[in-house]
Amino acid sequence: MQDVTRSPSRQVGDDRQPTRTPLFLFATGIENSYPTIQNGRVRRDQMEECGHYRLWERDFDLLEELDVRFLRYGPPLHRTFLGQGRYDWEFADLTFARLKERDTVPIVDLCHFGVPDWIGNFQNPDFPALFAEYAGAFARRFPWVQLYTPVNEMFICATFSAATGYWNEQLKSDQGFVTALKHLVRANVLAMHAILEERPDAIFIQSESTEYFHAEHPQAIKPAEIQNARRFLSLDLNYGRPVNSEMHEFLLDNGMTREEYHFFLDSNLRHHCIMGNDFYHTNEHRVDPGGQIRPAGEVFGYDEITRQYHDRYGLPVMHTETNFDQGPEGDEAVDWLWKQWANVLRVRNNRVPIVGFTWYSLTDQIDWDVALREQRGRVNPRGLYDLDRNIRPVGKAYKRLLSQWREVLPTQSVCLFVPVVLPSEYDEPMAVRRREGWRRYYRSEMKVKKANR
């Protein structure tokens, strides 16, 4: 599927730059999780553990070796947001300047599983407004950035922080989960509004884990149904879709007020969004009669589960995360890449508008086999490159995949594509006019919503 189409050569004397219109978002990412464990005493900063702070320039070189133009990436919130109105932009200034110079398009991830120590954790009711302030400040400092994932995997973050007790507040309660979830989603919505004030043609690619729960016994049908309703909560709230009656009672019984619930119904920005679906072999689960959950492996696969989410929200889709360890045979990750790409093509052939694909991440990771909850220092060999920045077989396979599919139109219509403005195009007259048009639309939209409240 074609990544970049170049315009014909300009006439002599025409000082405009060639316009390049991205059609399909082949992407990777820099793993930048930073939750805390051990009651906040230990910060699991994957950018530090995997060497990106030292080797960021080399990592950007690797993107060019792969010919990947889209990067899921974000500055570390805990190092950048020092206090209300206080920021340390040094690392972000260096890295984003180089991305702009290289004309690489970042999909900016502003909160990835953790908050600064001074905020505490996701139970803090001040977090949404504080985070929106940070998002607006980032958008003002880097106005050429257009694509955002304000809060990564809200459902997983709330679950691991407040339902399973892995990270951050390390709670194991329904009330803790609902509190974390409502704060995470509210932060995401407020951040979208803050970003649109600065970049009115911003596009939000909400990377979220797509799950399914299989009943393994007739008495497990009801517990599985509850889990299959619960999996939609973050996106229902984010996109302003009314939850089902059972989930409505669950939210209100565990601390969400009617006013908070109606905020989500009234404040959504779904038409500015692409639904990012993350899928791993761990995303499907078996539920026993007692409601206990264990891994199911791949049963339905990405195609079927993505169809369920698309039927619910009706938004364009992007496969925003997947990976698999390079196992003892050396080709396990390559086979998984092939399988995921086959699913992407099946999604497309089933007439679901799918606009991108991501192998996550660029390099190997540390301790994700135990969800970062223990400091084992174990390298997970699932990157396109290892931690010495040597390409893995899956990296070579991904590079081949890109080269083979570049000439295939990724959507059903030439009228359907993501209107990305490349960094080099930011100041072009067409891009400026488009932003002004979107600014007028956004302000008109806010007036209408305000009048209808």
UniProtKB/TrEMBL annotation:
InterPro entries: GH (IPR017853), Glyco_hydro_1 (IPR001360), Glycosyl_Hydrolase_39 (IPR051923). Pfam families: Glyco_hydro_1. One of its GO terms (biological process) is carbohydrate metabolic process. Keywords: Hydrolase. Gene3D superfamilies: Glycosidases (3.20.20.80). The keyword Hydrolase applies. One of its GO terms (molecular function) is hydrolase activity, hydrolyzing O-glycosyl compounds. This is Family 1 glycosylhydrolase. It comes from Microvirga thermotolerans.
